[in-house]
Fold:
Amino acid sequence: ALTLLTVVAEDRGIQPITERLANPQGGDDLFVRAHCVGLLQSLLADSSNWDRWPATLTQDPSPYVRQRLARVLWQTPSHVAAPSLRQLALHDETPQVRAATLVESLQRVDQGDLQPLQLQLLRQTLGEEQDEFVLRAAMHVAVTLWELWPCQRSAPTPADSPPASLRNASDITRGAGVSSARCSRDGGTQFATGTGESSSTNDLAVNEFYRDQLVPCLRELQANAAAIPVRRWAAASAERIWMLSCPEARVLYARLRSRAQRLRLGSRCRLPRRWFRGLDKHLVGRTLAVLAQDDFGYDLESSWWSYRLVKQPVFGFRWWRAWYE
Structure:
């Protein structure tokens, strides 16, 4: 009824919507208020009257309504949305609201004027949050954002990139520019300042932020988090970011994944040796470990002419064992 009223007479729809939001009731009213949040933002998006509502709605008694508000705020100009997004992501009393505020930021990969806030909220959450659920959501957002970031689509393939470097480096060392990333023997990614046209100032800023702030936070959680699951999630997230940052590892991962998806448990397939030519065994091993995050473990066996990828070795019937027993 409220939606129909806003379509028929937009001016008349604002008053009943604001009254429902200003006077929350019990029961199923929370679903009506959550719907009203979206309606009000669409009606007042181009008006200064919307500016006073985000701060008011962050105090709504229902976490469901506050989660809906988080989704709406990521589509709102930063000068209006920033204070309320910070309140929801860092200080809301409900962990699910804090987590949802971060996850909703993925609805747009490039947040424009909200991007610095998006990255800063991730950094503060990973560095200060104590709730395991919120930390896991923040790690998911960090990995997904890095995976979807436009600069990843312009990174080179092995055909136009140098072989994997054997020099020591930290997880993400000095420099920037994914278009010239190299992989070191210990699995780190060494960035050299890119000179190609594909590297924009914004891409370099995101690369530097991940290198200097987000990845160190993940490594700190991996080493010192009180909860063992958080340590595992942090290690898995850092490894996936490493794989996405290394052109050779990323291409090898895509090739292995295309074959692994068609394998049944305990089965194997042959892989061309040229896929691994020039790659360090540490890089191959860590790439397989990232692949195993998706479902099952894998073994890579070497033969004279090729490699064999085995998906989750399983115990099966063996004639020699039946004869022996």
User: Anything to note?
Assistant: The chain has 15 helices and five strands.
